[in-house]
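Colleagues,

Please find the record for the two-part complex below.
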Amino acid sequence: DQVLHIVPETIQQVQHLQLLCSTFMLDLWKPLLPEDIRAGEDLHIRVPAPLVQEMKDSLAQHMISYRVLIPDVQKLVDQSMPRERSSHRQVSGGYVYTEYHPMEEIYQWMTQIQKNNSELVTQHILGKTFENRTMYYLQISQPSNKTKKIIWMDCGIHAREWISPAFCQWFVKEILQNYKTDPKISRFLQNLDFYVLPVLNIDGYIYSWEEDRLWRKSRSPYENGTCYGTDLNRNFNSSWGSVGVSFNCSSDVFCGSGPESEPETRAVAQFIKSKKSDILCYLTIHSYGQLILTPYGSTTKPPSNNEELMQVAKEAAAALKGKYGTSYRVGSTASILYSNSGSSRDWAHTIGIPLSYTFELRDTGTHGFVLPADQIQPTCEETM
Amino acid sequence: RAMELPPGHFPAARAAAVAVEYLRYLRGGPGSGLRLRELQRARRQDIDDVGHKYYLELELEDVLDKDRTVSCTAEVLYHLGSTTSAPDVQLTVQGELRSTEEADKEFYNRIRSLEKELVAENIPDSHGNVPPELEPIHLLAWVASGYVIWQNSTENTKFHLAQVKHVKQVKRNDEDLQFDFVLLLHEMVSQEVLPWEVTLLWHPQRGARVPQSRAAGAGS
């Protein structure tokens, strides 16, 4: 079924539309009654699927222009229904993926996920944060006798970007819920392992829940405890400190006292370095901006495999747009966004990981960091 | 002599943001808020001794009526070497924006008849929620931030309203409504969140005015 938007221009068009409504017994959404159809005013009509073509032909014949407002009514109905507990296996007893969760709950979630999916998931320690909290990643790996390449994804490097950890959790849930039934996912898992770090900047994330929703950095103290936090995404060893940073702790892009000065950065870097020959793709998830960013931020000189990077990114953006029409721009950070140095994505690429991307999820500034929870589902679905 | 710019690249995106914020200040109100749907085309002209001028073609949508879009052509002139004067913005909007006369009047009367002055904070809240009765205040915050962002933008900045930290209505003897805001503006290039104290005056027929605004004291 489709909903058409028509603005009749003449009385003849109004009369014809009224005729169509009564002949086909169409469902008028706006106005409610055929007698209220007026020239120059919006008309929204739901047309049952079997009549769509005939309706459009009739409109064309009478030179009545229309726009498809809703291309698939059933789909919209399905989306707006709260997700029922499906007959899928319980991925993790009743966890609500369409809400934002504090760190305590995310820790519990990780434990549950491993427990309920132990044939596929193992939880590992990556390191510790400045405030001594344990950083865990989840390894999703189908037992097999062949060594598999790795796709690494980290979320929550910036505390205020709450949609990012929400996406990592969603991603894990989707894979585990559907790997047996979805041929694409099952093929992925035959050949690839996923390593997911749901929250990289745990101290900052907790601080954004408890003290300052718009906090970005970590929580390590500088200047005798008068100033806090390093921008972890300026702290990696890729042209560190050269551009798009501040050496002043009070700045939101403070790059730390040196490359990898922060324990969180070291934990990630050490691990990735140790596995780098097996890592095919490095993904880091941020918000906001609706962008798929490629290396580099510190220079506009393109990386050696730029064509491949761009092609994959463009295909990803197209697939993403196909879901709900959300537009993502694609390109290097230096051309699309701003100059920066010390980013994890640039560092991953320079040590040899060929496909390295930063995703900036919804939106483009209307809500920014404070994205309503009701956008978690569509954001995650389109990004999957 | 105007150079075509890739609309996806940041120089065009920053100029487009300024145009949209200026338009929000001019045309926004408690019943309507505009958002950039797409930057379709951008050109830039470097004018000796004057500055950089951007020519933009934008498609905008009304956040309260998403299937309605309007086109807009804008010229944004950033003055040479200036950090103190606002960019000049000229715009032409094609197409009709939805009339908000009814909603504006209703809002105006509702606020005027409040016994206690309206006070609110954290709009939206941490989870992105705005209670429906505060949505008009949220949209007026866009008008206020539209003004501040337009006035303070340069080619090296891109501002968005991150959150309304605090808003207080101030009753007046004349016919305007007055709202004193503390707005948190997110600046994309520096990634800073900057608090601004902004006074907004609004009247259903006369529209909005910002008699004063200033960057507030030390932030986070």
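The radius of gyration of chain B is 18 Å.

Comments are welcome before we finalize the supplementary table.
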